[in-house]
Amino acid sequence: MSKSKSKSKNIKSGKPTMASVADRFDCYQKSVQTPDHEVVFFEQAYRDAYGSAPTDLREDFCGTFAICCDWVASKSKRTAIGVDLCSETLQWGRDNNLAKLKKSQQKRVRLIEQDVRKRNRPTVDVLAAQNFSFWIFKTREEVIEYFKIAHSNLRSKGVMVMDMMGGGECYEEGLVDKRKIVKGKKGFKYHWEQVSFNPITADASFAISFKFADGSKMKRAFEYHWRFWTIPEVREMLAEAGFGESHIYWEKDDEDIDDDEYSTWERQETAPSDASWICYIVAVK
Ligand SMILES: C[S@@+](CC[C@H](N)C(=O)[O-])C[C@H]1O[C@@H](n2cnc3c(N)ncnc32)[C@H](O)[C@@H]1O
Questions:
Q1: Among 53, 180, 210, 238, which is 20 to 30 Å from 145 by CA?
Q2: C-alpha 227 – ligand 1 centre gap (Å)
Q3: Which ligand 1 atom is at minimum distance from the Cα of 59?
């Protein structure tokens, strides 16, 4: 993950700026992750496929492995394997997420610092690759190779869960989605920037920045250079990699749901052409 670029001192007061003392991983987790929601969804996806509850999770591209931690805390028999290349990110997760768990829960999390394109044992019930992480693979060959390995890291009854985004707005260069994040005492603003999109290659760059109450900014704290894959392309590659079925879970249009409640998801084969959407793809082994 890239380093943040922020001014370290307020010129008038000489005090450190809020951006210079903020923790970019903490801001990231508060802005883009809802691990408890993911855990509930993974269980729904597995139950829909096999009619029983899953026990063992592998989180590819796990970063600070927040989902692994919520997974093992959700049931006493659950285990989680987190896989990521970046030692700094994994270490932040050990110090800040793993450390908050009970000892008995910590023992059920295993971390592997390696490329996700490796076979590991034991196999698992659910393999998740969240926040569009596999978009780092830009060719069909690379994605299919990854999906084949993911397939082999699952038990005979296993599901692979990924999220996808799309809609016309997602192709607009320079568009910035701004949200205020207030978790804990200090609020801050989260900016998701669509930096560039090349319609010929579907190469797309995105960046996350944070803005604080004193006006200081952590500019482009995280940057991503991805291929903008579409749902049908991904489903075709999953089939080629050996998955028996794939299902799209679209957000339920639920008027009764409050803004602070999580969305619910259901299998769909048609969906409205919203300007901006996210959904899950669940591949069933
Ligand atoms: C977009 S972040 C996702 C973090 C987290 N999964 C989430 O949902 O927010 C992508 C992560 O993938 C890791 N990564 C990128 N390429 C990888 C690879 N080939 N193998 C393992 N990890 C990789 C990066 O180090 C980074 O932590």
A1: 53
A2: 15
A3: 6
Cα separation, 34 vs 66, whole angstroms? 9
Whole-number mean pLDDT of the chain?
92
216 CA to centre of ligand 1 in angstroms: 27
Q: Is 147 in the pocket of ligand 1 (CB under 6 A)?
A: no
**89 CA closest ligand 1 atom index:** 27
**Pocket of ligand 1 contains residue 79 by CB under 6 Å:** no
* CA–CA distance, 67 with 61 (Å, rounded to integer): 11
Q: Is the pLDDT of residue 4 over 70?
A: no
pLDDT tens sequence across 222-256: 999 999 999 999 999 999 999 999 999 999 987 66
Q: Where in the chain are the domains?
A: 18-22+168-227, 30-166+228-284
Superfamily of domain 30-166+228-284: Vaccinia Virus protein VP39 (3.40.50.150)
Sheet architecture: strand order including 203-212? 176-181, 188-198, 203-212, 217-227
Each residue of 192-212: pLDDT tens digit? 999 999 999 999 999 999 999
* φ/ψ of residue 94, rounded to 5: -60, -45
For ligand 1, the distance from its centroid to the CA atom of residue 255, given in whole angstroms, is 34
Q: Residue 160 in contact with residue 49, Cβ under 8 Å? A: no
Q: CA-to-CA distance for 145 and 117, rounded, in angstroms?
A: 8
With contact defined as beta carbons under 8 Å apart, do 54 and 42 qualify? yes
15 CA distance to ligand 1 middle (Å): 34
With a cut of 90, say whether residue 3 has pLDDT above it: no
CA geometry: angle at 234 spanning 232 and 238, to 5°?
115
**From the CB of 143, is ligand 1 less than 6 Å away?**
no
| Ligand 1 atom with the shortest distance to the CA of 224 | 1
